[in-house]
Amino acid sequence: MRQVSLGAKESAWPNLSHPGRAKTGDNNGMSESSELGAMLRAWRGRIQPHDVGSPFGRGSDKTPGLRREEVAWLAGVSADYVKRLEQGRSHPSRSVIRALARALRLSDAEYELACRLAGHASHLQAEVPQHITPSVQRLLDRLPDVPIAVFDAAWTRVEQNALWSAVTGDERERPHRGANIVWRTFLGKSGSVRHPNPEEYKHSLVADLREVTARYPNDDDLAAMVRDLLSSSAEFNKIWGHAGVGRHGGVSKIIDHPMVGSIELDCDVLSVHGSDLRIIVFTAPPRSSASESLRLLSVFGTETVSSQSAPGASVAG
To answer: Model confidence over 139-155: pLDDT tens digits?
Structure first.
């Protein structure tokens, strides 16, 4: 994989709350849960349905911004749960805050404020960052004909576009171990992507993970995953014991697809400056058979993905 750096600069975020309100006991009588609900309503009101590709029919609805159902669909939670959050009747987990931040296109500063109001401020510096900035989200939105996904520094997939789902078969879901490339390589389902040099690829992944655990020594979830990998995979354990540096050179990947067969695609890794995120992009040479396969999947494959992820019941986490 070729790796290049992608700069990301955020514009100033709206002054929706003064700094004192992010501190416990300095909120003018308003509880942090209530203020978080007020902020969620304000953030929901500034985003238009066409900005996020909402599948809900609007009819004559005059509601400004997104409806609760649309936020719920984007974040993978229930509409009733969004309602309870906005009313200050529920306490969201860190993963829910991250999902809502992506759905509402929150800036870094807004995401930090949401974490503080939800009582998760102590985890901001300790954990591997998974917050997707609005600029990165726009990149996904504006490249619908390219399979593209965003990963954190530990190689957990945190977002993807419809064509990535259609090409790889990866479902769009909240980040978890099953969405981590290292976990899947050694203990989970290997997936549809084949690597030309699998041994070198595995060593690079493990070297990456060693480096990330050194940078984020207080991330409990990361430490637990590494412990489980060490205890459950002899191969991972052996590679972990060898010092090495991760290298992701310019290589092609072969994806075995049930609809169009094997596709050979170029793979590039973009690093987002200041966010510690990685973006994987698959491309094909113009007028190649792989390019035609991507074109077909961009039409038929994404329709299948859209029908499978149509709005329906969801569960808060």
So the answer is: 888 899 999 999 999 99
